[in-house]
Protein: ABC transporter ATP-binding protein
Amino acid sequence: MLSIQNLQAAYGKVEVLHGISLEVPKGKLVTLIGSNGAGKTTTMRAISGMIKPKGGTVTLHGVDVTGMDSHRIARAGLAHSPEGRRVFATMSVTDNLLLGAFPRLTRARPKGDVQCDLERAMDLFPRLKERRHQLAGTLSGGEQQMLAMARAIMLNPEVVLLDEPSMGLAPILVDEVFRIIARLKDEGVTMLLVEQFAAAALNVADYGYVLENGSISLHGPAASLKHDAKVVVAYLGGAHAH
Structure:
């Protein structure tokens, strides 16, 4: 479904990704874990076209999308919910969600039933349903995070990239976000999840990759990574070893 081969990316002269490869099979949830500065967000940006890769290939559904503009990659079926919850503050919750479906409304993607999907998004995120007429800028951080996720799903994408969905959220909201991710997985949504809470990510994922200093150091089924001594020491230590 989503295949990354030997991906290299840099900011200026500083190479951040040194040729990483990973696979996100259809209907699976794959997580990418690693410490801050390992290159997780850079990976997401290089996949979705926010930055141009220096080398390697990104293939979506058998189509080479490497280095394409992000709007063209979105049209090909890749939705990116970036870190930092970028929502359109002066627009209502509903209008933000409809913007997620924009390529469908312009026929750049199969249209399907946008209204039905809007209702589904509201059902998935009850907090958004309550606040559907509110301006997005008046939502709490947690609600804005949910809106960014829901907007990505409104593309009706082949693959969703979720970049740090729990960042900066209160624990109760982190639990809610992961509940929603688990529900999307049950519905067969293909996802690549970058997450600081490695334990929560490995609990919900099918497969995991560990990124260290711009290279994949380890990968395997999420259930076995959870018990890998190196992963436990580096990422599951102390408070998050549930």
Summary: The CA atoms of residues 85 and 145 lie 5 Å apart. Confidence is low (pLDDT under 50) at residues 238-242. The chain is about 35% helix and 25% strand. Strands lie at 2-11, 14-24, 29-33, 55-60, 63-64, 78-81, 159-163, 190-194, 207-212, 215-221.
